[in-house]
Each structure stands twice: as C-alpha cells, then as structure tokens.
Amino acid sequence: MTVQHPRKGRKLAQVHVGARQIFLRDGYAGASVDDIARAARVSKATLYSYFPEKSVMFREVMLHELEEVAQQSPVQIDSAMPAQAALPEMARQIAQWQYSDLPLCLLRVNIAEANRFPDIAGKYQKVLDDILYDVIRQHLDRWVTQEELVIQNSLLAAHQLVSLTGATLQERLLVTAMPPEAHAAHIRDVSAEAARIFLASYQPVDGRQRHAAKAC
C-alpha cells in the first residue's frame, strides 16, 4: 500500500516529522495536537489544513513508517552458511532489530492501538511476515532440505526462534533502563542461548553428536 499525501511541500514534511516523533513516543491516545504542532514547528491551523482529524494523521504516519521498515529484512544471512554457523548470527540479528528504537516503538504503539486501528495492526503483521518470519522460514526450509535440521512446521519454528530471542529482552527494555554496553551484552547472551536451544530442538541427533565431538 502506498501512502497518499494530501498535499506536498515543506510544511507537510515538517508535520510528518513532528507527528512521527510524538506518535512513536506517546502513542495515539497520549499524543496531543498541541504537542504535534510544537514538535513540527507549525501552528495548529496549519496542522488541521493538512489533517482535519488526529486519526487521519496517525494512520498516515504509521503506514509510512511501516513502509519504511518493510524495505529490508533484518535477517541478512549468506545462503551458503550451514545452520550450525548461521543460527547464532541470525538470532543476534533478530534480537538487535527487535529492540532497536523504531521496531520497539512500533510494537508498543500497535499493541496499544490494535483495536482502534485494525488496518494498521494488519499492515504491521504483514510487514513482520514479509521481512522476518518468511525470510527465516526460507532459511529453515533450506537447512531441512540439506538434512541439517528436522522441522515439521518451519513457519511455526520461525516464530519460536523470534520468541526465544525476545524472551527476556522485552522485559528488560520495557521495565528497566539499561546502559548501551549492558544492552549489547544482553543481546549477545540471549541470542546465543536462543540459537543453542533452537539447535538442540531441531538439529538431528547425529548432527548434535558430531558437533559435541568437535567441541571436545
């Protein structure tokens, strides 16, 4: 879906920047038109000349942000890499993306506003399917074909891997502040453990035995 801007020009760009800042910070319910006008450095009259209702502005800004996110998958894995080597890096990339600023803000806003804006929630889920779950599934299917993994439902397994990488990071980021260096270390530790658990669940028994023998 392409976002159709009602007008073009410098003021509209300012409005988008200001609205993005406030909506991602405060959500729809918490965002005031006064705050958006201040952040955009325009008058409320100018704001309303572009968007007669706050809901119209919110929908356009959120759909635009989702289009930006949809441009590239956070999972960038060489298709020649075997599962044993690729999954720890894949888990790290997923965790790094999940808890970077924009994806985390979009998650918060979509959870809060899914009932009020079901079309945005649907677009959000479609973007996640396209850039995350489907990409992971394709890698998993390849490793299954190469007999590196044994998986009956690769899409479900993709969801499980994403859940494993976010199991404790979400609590840490939503509840407590964390300095950048501790945040990076936590992502590294949790993603490594997520990959280990995933491989232990889906790697063939003889594959796990070979890996254990090499480690010794």
From TrEMBL:
Molecular function GO labels: DNA-binding transcription factor activity; transcription cis-regulatory region binding
Domain spans labelled HTH tetR-type: 9-69
Pfam families the record matches: TetR_C_7, TetR_N
Keywords: DNA-binding, Transcription, Transcription regulation
PROSITE patterns hit by this protein: HTH_TETR_2
Entry-linked SUPFAM superfamilies: Homeodomain-like, Tetracyclin repressor-like, C-terminal domain
Protein name as catalogued: Transcriptional regulator, TetR family
